[in-house]
Amino acid sequence: MLKQIQGLHHVTSMASGAQSNNDFFTKVLGLRRVKKTVNFDAPDVYHLYYGDETGTPGTVMTYFPFPRAARGRPGAGEVGITAFSVPKGALHWWQDRLATFDVKGVKTETRFGEARLLFDGPDGDGFVLVEVDGDARAPWTGNGVPEDVAIRGFHSTDMRLRDVGASTELLRFMGYETLETADNITRLHIPGGNEANVIDLTQVSAAPAAQGAGSVHHVAFAVENRAKQLEVRKALMDTGYQVTPVIDRDYFWAIYFRTPGGVLFEVATNEPGFDRDEDTAHLGEALKLPSQHEHLRDQLVSQYLEPIHD
């Protein structure tokens, strides 16, 4: 069993527009945009990152906004819901705030004794706020959300699978332990991990999901550094998984592999962080391009990347 993985690092999804995506995460949810860059594999598309003040691993939601992209079709083999942690008693405030912004799909529920507020993102993305007692992570409050109700970071992701068995086995190999089960949901967590250390697996009989706007592209797990990442890569490959070589994403190093249930997993390093090319006070303000795409800056700005108004 692996000991290097600490919990979630980031979750990356797809959107149909950069401005609406930026407004939702900064103006509605009150997160900070910590990086404005491009998809390294398709530089005519933004890659936007939202999180706490510095983009701490375990807090960062990222998006590829493909202009006018068709919506994805929910189903099996995907991360269906991304959950954020908020303090105890915060849900009433959030319910009022989401109503003010006419957010769709708002409803309350309880899962494993936790109060939850579900809602949709602008592209039908599935989100939930979970009340957590004692989450010590410092929230970003620069966008007007009071500290006593602000999002602390991720709580968990909820993977929809036709068969949870093989994915449960994989997550146990990655260091997770089964915490609780109820009906068709299995909850796993990493003891002693970061605060974003929970994964829910929901067994469904749905048809396979089709990715599009509102779909999660991949979920990333955190390791401390490149040495730990190489240990994880070797162990996964020795177990039979097809894992990519290490890829430099400027703000972290990444490896990817496909899970038995069809979800794309990434293992990302905590180093070097989002302040490697911007001062912390100005994170996410300027368009940052990877060196291999810097020569395309004028063309990308004038022809492909829509202006984002903060």
From TrEMBL:
SUPFAM superfamilies: Glyoxalase/Bleomycin resistance protein/Dihydroxybiphenyl dioxygenase
InterPro entries: Extradiol_RC_dioxygenase (IPR052537), Glyas_Bleomycin-R_OHBP_Dase (IPR029068), Glyas_Fos-R_dOase_dom (IPR004360), VOC_core (IPR037523)
PROSITE patterns registered for this protein in UniProt: VOC
Pfam families given in the database record: Glyoxalase (PF00903)
Domain of life: Bacteria
Annotated Gene3D superfamilies: 2,3-Dihydroxybiphenyl 1,2-Dioxygenase, domain 1 (3.10.180.10)
PANTHER family noted in UniProt: RING-CLEAVING DIOXYGENASE MHQE-RELATED
Name this polypeptide is given: VOC domain-containing protein
